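Annotated sample (chain length 392).
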Amino acid sequence: MKSKTGLIFGMIVLLVLTGGCTAVQSVLSPTPTPAPPPSVESRGGIIAEARIVPRDDAMLFFNTGGTLAEVLVSEGEQVQAGQVLARLSESAQAQATLAQAKAELLAAQQALDTLNKKAALTAEQARVAMLEAEREAVQAWQAFDRLDTRATRDRIDDLREQVADLQQELQDREETLGRYTNLAADNPTRKRAEDDVEQARLRYNDASRELGLLTNEVELARARWDLANQRLEDARRTYEARQELKPDPDELALAQARVEAAQAAVAAAEEALRRLELRAPFDGTVVEVRYSPGESVAPAQTVLVLADLSEWYAETTDLSEKDVVRIRSDEEAEITPDALPEVHLRAKIERIADYPQTRGGDVVYRVRLRLLESDPRLRWGMTVDVRFAEER
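Output written by the structure step:
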Protein backbone atom coordinates (compact mmCIF):
# COMPACT_ATOMS: atom_id res chain seq x y z
CA MET A 1 0.00 0.00 0.00
CA LYS A 2 2.82 2.50 0.88
CA SER A 3 4.74 1.83 -2.32
CA LYS A 4 1.66 2.49 -4.42
CA THR A 5 0.96 5.74 -2.61
CA GLY A 6 4.44 6.95 -3.18
CA LEU A 7 4.26 6.13 -6.85
CA ILE A 8 1.06 8.12 -7.30
CA PHE A 9 2.54 11.09 -5.43
CA GLY A 10 5.57 11.02 -7.65
CA MET A 11 3.47 11.04 -10.78
CA ILE A 12 1.55 14.07 -9.53
CA VAL A 13 4.73 16.00 -8.87
CA LEU A 14 6.06 15.11 -12.30
CA LEU A 15 2.89 16.28 -13.98
CA VAL A 16 2.97 19.57 -12.09
CA LEU A 17 6.45 20.19 -13.29
CA THR A 18 5.74 19.32 -16.90
CA GLY A 19 2.11 20.33 -17.48
CA GLY A 20 0.99 22.61 -14.73
CA CYS A 21 -2.16 22.58 -12.71
CA THR A 22 -4.34 21.58 -15.61
CA ALA A 23 -2.63 18.23 -15.90
CA VAL A 24 -2.94 17.69 -12.17
CA GLN A 25 -6.64 18.43 -12.29
CA SER A 26 -7.14 15.97 -15.17
CA VAL A 27 -5.49 13.22 -13.20
CA LEU A 28 -7.35 13.94 -10.00
CA SER A 29 -10.73 14.49 -11.75
CA PRO A 30 -10.79 12.71 -15.10
CA THR A 31 -13.50 13.71 -17.59
CA PRO A 32 -16.50 11.38 -16.95
CA THR A 33 -17.59 9.07 -19.72
CA PRO A 34 -21.32 9.67 -20.56
CA ALA A 35 -23.33 6.98 -18.82
CA PRO A 36 -25.49 4.81 -21.11
CA PRO A 37 -29.21 5.29 -20.73
CA PRO A 38 -30.78 2.88 -18.28
CA SER A 39 -31.77 -0.41 -19.84
CA VAL A 40 -35.42 -1.35 -20.37
CA GLU A 41 -35.10 -4.03 -17.74
CA SER A 42 -33.81 -1.52 -15.17
CA ARG A 43 -36.96 0.54 -15.68
CA GLY A 44 -39.24 -2.40 -14.96
CA GLY A 45 -40.18 -3.83 -18.36
CA ILE A 46 -40.01 -3.66 -22.16
CA ILE A 47 -40.77 -0.39 -23.96
CA ALA A 48 -41.97 -0.20 -27.54
CA GLU A 49 -43.34 2.48 -29.80
CA ALA A 50 -46.96 2.15 -30.96
CA ARG A 51 -49.77 4.13 -32.55
CA ILE A 52 -53.31 4.72 -31.40
CA VAL A 53 -55.88 3.03 -33.68
CA PRO A 54 -59.66 2.57 -33.44
CA ARG A 55 -61.32 -0.72 -32.70
CA ASP A 56 -61.95 -1.22 -36.42
CA ASP A 57 -61.53 0.88 -39.55
CA ALA A 58 -62.15 0.56 -43.26
CA MET A 59 -61.22 2.47 -46.40
CA LEU A 60 -64.38 2.20 -48.49
CA PHE A 61 -64.20 2.22 -52.27
CA PHE A 62 -66.13 1.10 -55.34
CA ASN A 63 -65.01 -1.90 -57.35
CA THR A 64 -66.02 -0.09 -60.52
CA GLY A 65 -65.42 3.47 -61.66
CA GLY A 66 -68.08 6.07 -62.32
CA THR A 67 -69.62 9.35 -61.31
CA LEU A 68 -70.55 9.82 -57.68
CA ALA A 69 -74.30 10.46 -57.56
CA GLU A 70 -74.93 10.64 -53.82
CA VAL A 71 -72.97 10.88 -50.61
CA LEU A 72 -75.56 10.12 -47.95
CA VAL A 73 -73.41 10.83 -44.89
CA SER A 74 -71.13 13.53 -43.57
CA GLU A 75 -67.95 13.46 -41.54
CA GLY A 76 -68.57 12.69 -37.88
CA GLU A 77 -71.89 10.94 -38.56
CA GLN A 78 -72.69 7.68 -36.80
CA VAL A 79 -73.77 4.87 -39.14
CA GLN A 80 -74.97 1.29 -38.73
CA ALA A 81 -73.75 -1.87 -40.40
CA GLY A 82 -75.39 -2.32 -43.81
CA GLN A 83 -76.36 1.34 -44.16
CA VAL A 84 -75.90 2.81 -47.66
CA LEU A 85 -73.29 5.58 -47.51
CA ALA A 86 -72.80 6.56 -51.15
CA ARG A 87 -73.97 5.66 -54.66
CA LEU A 88 -72.69 5.96 -58.20
CA SER A 89 -74.93 7.52 -60.84
CA GLU A 90 -75.47 4.13 -62.51
CA SER A 91 -77.21 2.85 -59.36
CA ALA A 92 -80.60 4.27 -60.43
CA GLN A 93 -80.70 1.99 -63.47
CA ALA A 94 -79.46 -0.91 -61.35
CA GLN A 95 -82.29 -0.33 -58.88
CA ALA A 96 -84.83 -0.36 -61.70
CA THR A 97 -83.36 -3.59 -63.04
CA LEU A 98 -83.54 -5.16 -59.59
CA ALA A 99 -87.17 -4.11 -59.14
CA GLN A 100 -88.06 -5.63 -62.51
CA ALA A 101 -86.26 -8.87 -61.63
CA LYS A 102 -88.11 -9.09 -58.31
CA ALA A 103 -91.44 -8.55 -60.05
CA GLU A 104 -90.68 -11.38 -62.48
CA LEU A 105 -89.70 -13.65 -59.59
CA LEU A 106 -92.98 -12.89 -57.83
CA ALA A 107 -94.98 -13.66 -60.99
CA ALA A 108 -93.07 -16.89 -61.60
CA GLN A 109 -93.55 -18.04 -58.02
CA GLN A 110 -97.27 -17.26 -58.13
CA ALA A 111 -97.63 -19.27 -61.33
CA LEU A 112 -95.88 -22.24 -59.75
CA ASP A 113 -97.99 -21.92 -56.61
CA THR A 114 -101.19 -21.83 -58.64
CA LEU A 115 -100.11 -24.94 -60.53
CA ASN A 116 -99.52 -26.84 -57.33
CA LYS A 117 -102.42 -25.33 -55.43
CA LYS A 118 -105.22 -27.67 -56.47
CA ALA A 119 -103.22 -30.83 -55.99
CA ALA A 120 -101.79 -29.59 -52.73
CA LEU A 121 -105.20 -28.47 -51.46
CA THR A 122 -106.79 -31.83 -52.23
CA ALA A 123 -103.97 -33.71 -50.56
CA GLU A 124 -104.07 -31.43 -47.52
CA GLN A 125 -107.81 -31.89 -47.13
CA ALA A 126 -107.31 -35.65 -47.18
CA ARG A 127 -104.51 -35.29 -44.64
CA VAL A 128 -106.76 -33.26 -42.31
CA ALA A 129 -109.50 -35.88 -42.62
CA MET A 130 -107.00 -38.62 -41.82
CA LEU A 131 -105.72 -36.76 -38.77
CA GLU A 132 -109.25 -36.23 -37.51
CA ALA A 133 -109.99 -39.93 -37.99
CA GLU A 134 -106.84 -40.79 -36.07
CA ARG A 135 -107.95 -38.57 -33.20
CA GLU A 136 -111.43 -40.12 -33.14
CA ALA A 137 -109.91 -43.62 -33.15
CA VAL A 138 -107.65 -42.75 -30.24
CA GLN A 139 -110.52 -41.23 -28.28
CA ALA A 140 -112.71 -44.27 -28.96
CA TRP A 141 -109.96 -46.62 -27.87
CA GLN A 142 -109.39 -44.60 -24.68
CA ALA A 143 -113.12 -44.73 -23.87
CA PHE A 144 -113.25 -48.48 -24.42
CA ASP A 145 -110.01 -49.01 -22.50
CA ARG A 146 -111.40 -47.18 -19.48
CA LEU A 147 -114.40 -49.56 -19.42
CA ASP A 148 -112.82 -52.83 -20.50
CA THR A 149 -111.06 -53.50 -17.21
CA ARG A 150 -110.86 -56.47 -14.87
CA ALA A 151 -113.02 -54.62 -12.38
CA THR A 152 -115.73 -54.06 -15.01
CA ARG A 153 -115.61 -57.68 -16.15
CA ASP A 154 -115.79 -58.89 -12.53
CA ARG A 155 -118.74 -56.58 -11.90
CA ILE A 156 -120.56 -57.97 -14.96
CA ASP A 157 -119.94 -61.55 -13.78
CA ASP A 158 -121.20 -60.68 -10.28
CA LEU A 159 -124.29 -59.03 -11.72
CA ARG A 160 -125.03 -62.05 -13.87
CA GLU A 161 -124.84 -64.33 -10.85
CA GLN A 162 -126.92 -61.88 -8.83
CA VAL A 163 -129.57 -61.68 -11.56
CA ALA A 164 -129.73 -65.47 -11.75
CA ASP A 165 -130.11 -65.73 -7.98
CA LEU A 166 -132.76 -63.02 -7.90
CA GLN A 167 -134.63 -64.67 -10.75
CA GLN A 168 -134.66 -67.92 -8.80
CA GLU A 169 -135.79 -66.09 -5.69
CA LEU A 170 -138.62 -64.47 -7.65
CA GLN A 171 -139.74 -67.81 -8.99
CA ASP A 172 -139.72 -69.29 -5.47
CA ARG A 173 -141.76 -66.40 -4.10
CA GLU A 174 -144.23 -66.69 -6.95
CA GLU A 175 -144.62 -70.40 -6.28
CA THR A 176 -145.25 -69.65 -2.60
CA LEU A 177 -147.82 -67.04 -3.52
CA GLY A 178 -149.52 -69.60 -5.77
CA ARG A 179 -150.27 -71.73 -2.76
CA TYR A 180 -152.19 -68.85 -1.15
CA THR A 181 -154.29 -67.62 -4.05
CA ASN A 182 -157.35 -69.45 -2.69
CA LEU A 183 -157.26 -67.30 0.43
CA ALA A 184 -159.15 -64.06 0.76
CA ALA A 185 -157.55 -61.00 -0.73
CA ASP A 186 -157.18 -59.44 2.67
CA ASN A 187 -155.70 -62.51 4.25
CA PRO A 188 -152.46 -61.57 6.05
CA THR A 189 -150.60 -64.65 4.83
CA ARG A 190 -151.57 -63.96 1.22
CA LYS A 191 -150.66 -60.31 1.56
CA ARG A 192 -147.19 -61.16 2.94
CA ALA A 193 -146.64 -63.55 0.05
CA GLU A 194 -147.68 -60.87 -2.46
CA ASP A 195 -145.32 -58.35 -0.81
CA ASP A 196 -142.47 -60.85 -0.94
CA VAL A 197 -143.10 -61.37 -4.66
CA GLU A 198 -143.16 -57.63 -5.29
CA GLN A 199 -139.89 -57.05 -3.40
CA ALA A 200 -138.19 -59.95 -5.19
CA ARG A 201 -139.37 -58.60 -8.55
CA LEU A 202 -137.98 -55.12 -7.75
CA ARG A 203 -134.60 -56.51 -6.75
CA TYR A 204 -134.48 -58.66 -9.87
CA ASN A 205 -135.45 -55.77 -12.16
CA ASP A 206 -132.83 -53.45 -10.60
CA ALA A 207 -130.05 -55.99 -10.99
CA SER A 208 -131.14 -56.81 -14.55
CA ARG A 209 -131.15 -53.11 -15.53
CA GLU A 210 -127.71 -52.56 -14.01
CA LEU A 211 -126.33 -55.57 -15.83
CA GLY A 212 -127.90 -54.47 -19.09
CA LEU A 213 -126.61 -50.90 -18.83
CA LEU A 214 -123.06 -51.92 -17.95
CA THR A 215 -122.93 -54.57 -20.67
CA ASN A 216 -124.38 -52.15 -23.20
CA GLU A 217 -121.88 -49.43 -22.25
CA VAL A 218 -118.94 -51.76 -22.79
CA GLU A 219 -120.28 -53.08 -26.08
CA LEU A 220 -121.10 -49.59 -27.30
CA ALA A 221 -117.54 -48.43 -26.56
CA ARG A 222 -116.19 -51.46 -28.41
CA ALA A 223 -118.47 -50.78 -31.38
CA ARG A 224 -117.41 -47.10 -31.50
CA TRP A 225 -113.77 -48.13 -31.46
CA ASP A 226 -114.35 -50.59 -34.30
CA LEU A 227 -116.21 -47.93 -36.29
CA ALA A 228 -113.45 -45.35 -35.68
CA ASN A 229 -110.83 -47.84 -36.89
CA GLN A 230 -112.80 -48.47 -40.08
CA ARG A 231 -113.14 -44.73 -40.71
CA LEU A 232 -109.42 -44.31 -40.11
CA GLU A 233 -108.56 -46.97 -42.65
CA ASP A 234 -110.84 -45.29 -45.20
CA ALA A 235 -109.23 -41.89 -44.50
CA ARG A 236 -105.74 -43.34 -44.92
CA ARG A 237 -106.62 -44.94 -48.24
CA THR A 238 -108.10 -41.66 -49.45
CA TYR A 239 -105.05 -39.68 -48.36
CA GLU A 240 -102.63 -42.10 -50.05
CA ALA A 241 -104.65 -41.95 -53.25
CA ARG A 242 -104.74 -38.16 -53.29
CA GLN A 243 -101.01 -37.94 -52.69
CA GLU A 244 -100.59 -39.03 -56.27
CA LEU A 245 -102.51 -36.01 -57.57
CA LYS A 246 -99.74 -33.85 -59.05
CA PRO A 247 -99.57 -31.20 -61.80
CA ASP A 248 -98.63 -32.11 -65.33
CA PRO A 249 -94.87 -32.90 -65.30
CA ASP A 250 -94.08 -30.69 -68.32
CA GLU A 251 -96.00 -27.73 -66.93
CA LEU A 252 -94.42 -28.22 -63.54
CA ALA A 253 -90.88 -28.34 -65.00
CA LEU A 254 -91.50 -25.19 -67.03
CA ALA A 255 -92.85 -23.29 -64.02
CA GLN A 256 -89.92 -24.37 -61.84
CA ALA A 257 -87.41 -23.36 -64.53
CA ARG A 258 -89.04 -19.93 -64.74
CA VAL A 259 -88.69 -19.47 -60.98
CA GLU A 260 -85.04 -20.51 -61.03
CA ALA A 261 -84.27 -18.11 -63.88
CA ALA A 262 -86.00 -15.27 -62.02
CA GLN A 263 -84.03 -16.05 -58.84
CA ALA A 264 -80.77 -15.91 -60.78
CA ALA A 265 -81.78 -12.59 -62.33
CA VAL A 266 -82.55 -11.11 -58.89
CA ALA A 267 -79.20 -12.31 -57.52
CA ALA A 268 -77.36 -10.78 -60.50
CA ALA A 269 -79.24 -7.47 -60.17
CA GLU A 270 -78.50 -7.33 -56.42
CA GLU A 271 -74.82 -7.94 -57.05
CA ALA A 272 -74.75 -5.24 -59.75
CA LEU A 273 -76.39 -2.78 -57.34
CA ARG A 274 -73.96 -3.69 -54.55
CA ARG A 275 -71.07 -2.77 -56.83
CA LEU A 276 -72.61 0.68 -57.26
CA GLU A 277 -73.27 1.32 -53.56
CA LEU A 278 -71.03 1.72 -50.55
CA ARG A 279 -72.44 0.12 -47.40
CA ALA A 280 -71.07 0.30 -43.87
CA PRO A 281 -69.39 -3.01 -43.00
CA PHE A 282 -69.85 -2.32 -39.28
CA ASP A 283 -71.32 0.23 -36.85
CA GLY A 284 -69.04 3.23 -36.69
CA THR A 285 -68.28 6.88 -37.43
CA VAL A 286 -67.56 8.45 -40.80
CA VAL A 287 -64.19 10.05 -40.16
CA GLU A 288 -63.43 11.27 -43.69
CA VAL A 289 -65.33 11.99 -46.92
CA ARG A 290 -62.94 12.42 -49.80
CA TYR A 291 -65.31 13.04 -52.74
CA SER A 292 -68.46 15.02 -53.43
CA PRO A 293 -71.45 14.21 -55.69
CA GLY A 294 -70.66 14.79 -59.35
CA GLU A 295 -66.99 13.85 -59.07
CA SER A 296 -65.55 10.88 -60.93
CA VAL A 297 -64.01 8.08 -58.94
CA ALA A 298 -61.80 5.28 -60.15
CA PRO A 299 -62.04 1.63 -59.07
CA ALA A 300 -60.45 0.94 -55.67
CA GLN A 301 -60.14 4.68 -54.98
CA THR A 302 -61.03 5.45 -51.35
CA VAL A 303 -64.23 7.49 -51.10
CA LEU A 304 -65.01 7.24 -47.38
CA VAL A 305 -63.10 6.26 -44.27
CA LEU A 306 -65.12 4.56 -41.55
CA ALA A 307 -63.95 3.73 -38.03
CA ASP A 308 -65.37 2.24 -34.88
CA LEU A 309 -64.24 4.77 -32.28
CA SER A 310 -66.04 3.12 -29.38
CA GLU A 311 -62.71 1.83 -28.08
CA TRP A 312 -59.07 2.79 -28.58
CA TYR A 313 -56.29 0.33 -29.29
CA ALA A 314 -52.54 0.60 -29.58
CA GLU A 315 -50.64 -1.34 -32.25
CA THR A 316 -46.90 -1.79 -32.43
CA THR A 317 -44.51 -3.57 -34.77
CA ASP A 318 -41.56 -2.54 -32.65
CA LEU A 319 -41.15 -5.75 -30.66
CA SER A 320 -38.18 -7.89 -31.68
CA GLU A 321 -38.12 -11.63 -31.47
CA LYS A 322 -36.11 -11.34 -28.26
CA ASP A 323 -38.71 -9.10 -26.63
CA VAL A 324 -41.88 -10.78 -27.86
CA VAL A 325 -41.11 -14.01 -26.05
CA ARG A 326 -41.08 -12.07 -22.76
CA ILE A 327 -44.72 -10.94 -22.92
CA ARG A 328 -47.98 -12.80 -23.18
CA SER A 329 -51.63 -12.16 -24.02
CA ASP A 330 -54.04 -10.82 -21.39
CA GLU A 331 -51.24 -9.08 -19.49
CA GLU A 332 -51.58 -5.39 -18.75
CA ALA A 333 -49.24 -2.68 -20.02
CA GLU A 334 -48.86 1.08 -19.63
CA ILE A 335 -49.52 3.54 -22.47
CA THR A 336 -47.91 7.00 -22.50
CA PRO A 337 -48.75 9.27 -25.47
CA ASP A 338 -45.84 11.31 -26.82
CA ALA A 339 -48.10 14.36 -26.99
CA LEU A 340 -49.32 13.83 -23.40
CA PRO A 341 -46.28 12.69 -21.42
CA GLU A 342 -48.06 13.28 -18.13
CA VAL A 343 -50.81 10.79 -19.07
CA HIS A 344 -50.36 7.10 -18.23
CA LEU A 345 -53.12 4.72 -19.29
CA ARG A 346 -53.67 1.05 -18.58
CA ALA A 347 -53.98 -1.34 -21.50
CA LYS A 348 -54.29 -5.08 -21.98
CA ILE A 349 -52.52 -7.17 -24.60
CA GLU A 350 -55.24 -8.54 -26.84
CA ARG A 351 -53.22 -10.27 -29.53
CA ILE A 352 -49.62 -11.11 -30.35
CA ALA A 353 -49.15 -11.88 -34.03
CA ASP A 354 -48.11 -15.39 -34.99
CA TYR A 355 -46.72 -14.22 -38.32
CA PRO A 356 -43.50 -12.15 -38.31
CA GLN A 357 -42.59 -8.99 -40.21
CA THR A 358 -39.21 -7.67 -41.25
CA ARG A 359 -38.25 -4.11 -40.27
CA GLY A 360 -34.79 -2.74 -40.93
CA GLY A 361 -33.49 -6.25 -41.30
CA ASP A 362 -34.88 -7.27 -37.90
CA VAL A 363 -37.68 -9.73 -37.26
CA VAL A 364 -40.52 -8.00 -35.44
CA TYR A 365 -44.06 -8.92 -34.39
CA ARG A 366 -47.24 -6.90 -34.37
CA VAL A 367 -48.90 -6.59 -30.95
CA ARG A 368 -52.38 -5.16 -30.41
CA LEU A 369 -53.46 -3.77 -27.04
CA ARG A 370 -56.89 -2.60 -25.90
CA LEU A 371 -56.88 0.56 -23.78
CA LEU A 372 -58.62 -0.02 -20.46
CA GLU A 373 -58.56 3.74 -19.80
CA SER A 374 -58.89 6.65 -22.18
CA ASP A 375 -58.39 10.40 -22.45
CA PRO A 376 -60.60 12.74 -24.52
CA ARG A 377 -57.48 14.22 -26.13
CA LEU A 378 -56.43 10.94 -27.73
CA ARG A 379 -56.58 10.87 -31.51
CA TRP A 380 -56.20 8.21 -34.15
CA GLY A 381 -52.58 7.83 -35.21
CA MET A 382 -50.95 9.38 -32.11
CA THR A 383 -47.58 7.92 -31.21
CA VAL A 384 -47.35 6.32 -27.77
CA ASP A 385 -44.82 4.42 -25.71
CA VAL A 386 -45.95 1.04 -24.46
CA ARG A 387 -44.31 -0.28 -21.32
CA PHE A 388 -44.81 -4.04 -21.08
CA ALA A 389 -44.43 -5.91 -17.82
CA GLU A 390 -41.74 -8.49 -18.41
CA GLU A 391 -42.99 -12.07 -18.01
CA ARG A 392 -41.76 -13.81 -14.89
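Annotation: The radius of gyration is 52 Å.
Annotation: The helical segments are 2-28, 91-147, 150-178, 188-243, 249-274, 321-324.
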